[in-house]
Amino acid sequence: MSQAQEYWKANLRLVFLCIVIWFMVSFGFGILLAEPLNGIKLGGYKLGFWFAQQGSIYTFVALIFFYAHRMNILDRKFNVHEG
Fold first, then answer.
1. pTM attached to this predicted model
2. How many domains does the chain have?
3. What is the pLDDT along the chain (83 residues), one digit of tens a residue?
């Protein structure tokens, strides 16, 4: 397998991981598991409501920084980094 194919495969794995995490938090916790999570309070708000309103957004922003950090590592590993 060429280095470009390995780089692309590693990139796709990272993207897939980020999408799975975001899906679990936004759809899983915010919609499917909202009722069971509503039994737990976070800062005075029901946890299911919090995930639906704020948690998925915070997770998305955290995933952006995680993805950028991991891509920088991946870029250096495959010597395709900028500068």
1. 0.83
2. 1
3. 899 999 999 999 999 999 999 999 989 988 898 899 899 997 888 988 888 888 889 999 999 999 999 999 999 999 997 76
